[in-house]
Amino acid sequence: MQKIIRNRIKCNSCGAVIESRTVHEFVQCPCGRVYVDGGLDYLRRGYKDGPDDYIEMAEVKKLDLK
Ligand SMILES: [Zn+2]
After folding, report:
1. Can you give the pTM of this predicted structure?
2. pLDDT digit string (tens) for 35-65?
3. How many angstroms is it from 10 CA to the middle of ligand 1?
4. Which of 40, 55, 58, 63 has its CA at a distance of 20 to 30 angstroms from the CA of residue 19?
């Protein structure tokens, strides 16, 4: 189980860092190759060619289930 602190990626084409802050906030980078979605509920990524289109910059915190 993990808690999402920041949902963001960096585009390898235009260098923009994009971040989704709320669950339905869909954010695309200026060059349009990658996007993030899901806010702090889930990490959704989209890309044009493949996962190498972006650098993962999400911050997540692992939760201990006791
Ligand atoms: Zn871009």
Report:
1. 0.90
2. 999 999 999 999 999 999 999 999 999 988 7
3. 8
4. 63
